[in-house]
């Protein structure tokens, strides 16, 4: 417990020292939290946005952060949420390890450095928070598995409902974990009559039936056909477990982990619960079968590996009775955490200069403005160091009560919607921003297949052009006047031409 508290505080330092960490979707989510918290008392935001609370499987932050943002600023509320997410995941791994082994072990703490994974950098916060709930829910199911069936059915049903509202992908991870445990139990009790074991096996899935009416009542079902499969990128999804900013650092982390594990297994001080093998098989089959886009949500398959990895860490059993093992484990743990902290803090400190410049440019925007977001070219935004800039324009929603084209407001995915008067001024389908060349074309030679907000860009007040080169020229001097030129972005005032 002392190590858990100390190391969780240690790994959270970058969160506390960077009020606006450079995570891709995070600032967009944070802007939505601000809208939810301020909408009743902010006329400028109320002119653009409206709240429509519905049964949506993507509401973890929407439920937790806005109440916090009413008693503290939204940046601090976001930090509290992120650290709580870390605590939930690591404590869940410890508890799952406890119910599998019958005692607490220090081994799950080795998962702490992996809290900063690529899925985290992308900013998939509702999903990651849901993973913490998944691990706790699986620990709860295993702990009451042999008790009276009403207890475990109530616990499982409540867990499934909570996970549904956290994120649909997290609910899927819980399904994988529970199915894997029940398959293992079915095998371990193979000497008993098949009929009773099969009935118990299938009954364990009955609580998942509650998902059917929830989905039926959810507008998310409108997106059920928006699926696409892509086998390329499956290896990337596995790398996302350990990937951050440096491939060398990720490779070193793997070498240390694998080297330590091989030594421990050879000396018979590291063993794994049989659930680990079943999780690998079931999780692997599901991973390779999942689509890349599901319910119009990207990275549906690539989110899975970190969740499975966290559960696998809970399956380890390290014998620490020997002093050499205790010291070796603690040394490896400290090296891994220190290495990850240095990597994150070094890169975030460098990227924070761009964030500070961007926030300074936001202060030059008139409150209540309409802001268009475009890319300097269509292929920008893929580098990991660019993730913090992708949705940075949403800072204007927080600090200037502005309408921003990229603010997440997709029906069926978010409870924030753009009012009907401004639906043609926002990307309500969560697409990729246009390039400046496409905007010039939309203004001079509009095509019928162009989105409505592209065609209306000259009616906005400002435009942010992201991923620009140094001293990039004005792409449309007749319509644009430069307001701020920062690190890889430019802010222009749009000149209204009669």
Description:
A 5-stranded mixed beta sheet has the order 7-6-9-11-10. It folds into 2 domains: 57-319, no CATH class; 353-494, no CATH class. The chain has 21 helices and 11 strands. Strand 3 and strand 4 (297-298) form a beta hairpin. It has helices spanning 2-11, 13-17, 26-38, 43-48, 60-69, 74-101, 118-122, 125-143, 149-166, 168-188, 194-203, 211-216, 234-239, 247-266, 275-289, 304-313, 323-362, 387-390, 395-400, 436-444, 452-455; strands at 49-51, 270-272, 293-294, 297-298, 316-318, 370-375, 403-404, 416-418, 462-466, 480-486, 489-494. It is globular. The chain has 498 residues and is an alpha+beta fold.
Give the class from helix and strand content and strand pairing. alpha+beta
Rg calculated over all Cα atoms: 24 Å
The helix fraction, in percent, is: 40-55%
Distance between the termini: 68 Å
Strand count? 11
Major sheet: 5 strands, mixed
| Strand fraction | 5-15%
Count of helical stretches: 21
- Oligomerization status of the protein chains: single chain
Shape descriptor reads: globular
Uncertain residue segments: none
In the sheet with the most strands, the strands line up as: 7-6-9-11-10
Task: Kindly give the count of domains.
Answer: 2
Summarize model confidence as the mean pLDDT: 93
């Amino acid at each position: 417990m002392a190590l858990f508290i100390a190391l969780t505080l240690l790994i959270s330092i970058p969160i506390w020292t960077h009020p606006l960490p450079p995570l891709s979707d995070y600032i967009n989510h944070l802007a939505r939290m601000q809208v939810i918290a301020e909408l009743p008392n902010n006329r400028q935001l109320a002119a653009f946005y409206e709240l429509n609370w519905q049964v949506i499987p993507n509401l973890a932050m929407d439920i937790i952060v806005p109440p916090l943002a009413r008693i503290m600023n939204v940046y601090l509320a976001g930090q509290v949420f992120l650290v709580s997410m870390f605590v939930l995941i690591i404590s869940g791994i410890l508890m799952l390890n406890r119910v599998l082994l019958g005692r607490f072990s220090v081994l799950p703490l080795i998962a702490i450095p992996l809290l900063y994974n690529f899925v985290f950098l992308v900013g998939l916060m509702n999903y990651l928070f849901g993973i913490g709930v998944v691990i706790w829910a699986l620990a709860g199911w295993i702990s009451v598995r042999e008790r009276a069936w009403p207890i475990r059915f109530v616990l499982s049903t409540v867990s499934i409902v909570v996970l549904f509202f956290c994120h649909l992908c997290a609910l899927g991870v819980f399904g994988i974990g529970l199915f894997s445990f029940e398959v293992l139990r079915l095998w371990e009790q193979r000497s008993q009559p098949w009929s009773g074991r099969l009935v118990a096996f299938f009954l364990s899935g009955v609580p998942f039936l509650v998902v059917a009416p929830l989905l039926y009542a959810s507008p998310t079902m409108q997106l059920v056909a928006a699926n696409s499969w892509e086998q390329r990128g499956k290896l990337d999804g596995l790398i996302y477990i350990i990937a951050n900013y440096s491939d060398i650092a990720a490779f070193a982390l793997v070498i240390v982990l694998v080297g330590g594990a091989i030594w421990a297994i050879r000396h018979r001080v590291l063993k794994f619960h049989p659930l680990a093998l079943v999780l690998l098989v079931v999780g692997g089959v599901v991973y390779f079968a999942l689509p890349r886009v599901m319910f119009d949500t990207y990275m549906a398959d690539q989110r899975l590996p970190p969740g499975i990895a966290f559960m696998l860490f809970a399956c380890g059993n390290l014998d620490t009775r020997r002093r050499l093992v205790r010291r070796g484990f603690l040394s490896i743990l400290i090296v891994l955490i220190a290495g990850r902290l240095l990597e994150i803090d070094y890169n975030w400190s460098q990227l924070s200069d761009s964030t500070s410049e961007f926030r300074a440019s936001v202060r030059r925007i008139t409150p209540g403005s309409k802001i268009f977001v475009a890319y300097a070219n269509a292929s920008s935004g893929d580098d990991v160091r660019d993730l913090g800039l992708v949705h940075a324009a949403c800072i204007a929603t927080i600090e200037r009560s502005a309408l921003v084209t990229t603010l997440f407001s997709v029906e069926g995915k978010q409870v924030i919607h753009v009012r009907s008067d401004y639906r043609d001024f926002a990307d309500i389908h969560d697409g990729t921003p246009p390039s400046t060349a496409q905007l010039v074309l939309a203004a001079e030679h509009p095509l019928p297949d162009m989105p409505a907000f592209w065609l209306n860009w000259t009616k906005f007040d400002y435009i942010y052009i992201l991923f620009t080169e140094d001293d990039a020229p004005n792409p449309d001097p007749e319509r644009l006047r430069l307001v701020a030129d920062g690190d890889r972005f430019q802010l222009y005032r749009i000149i209204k031409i009669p």
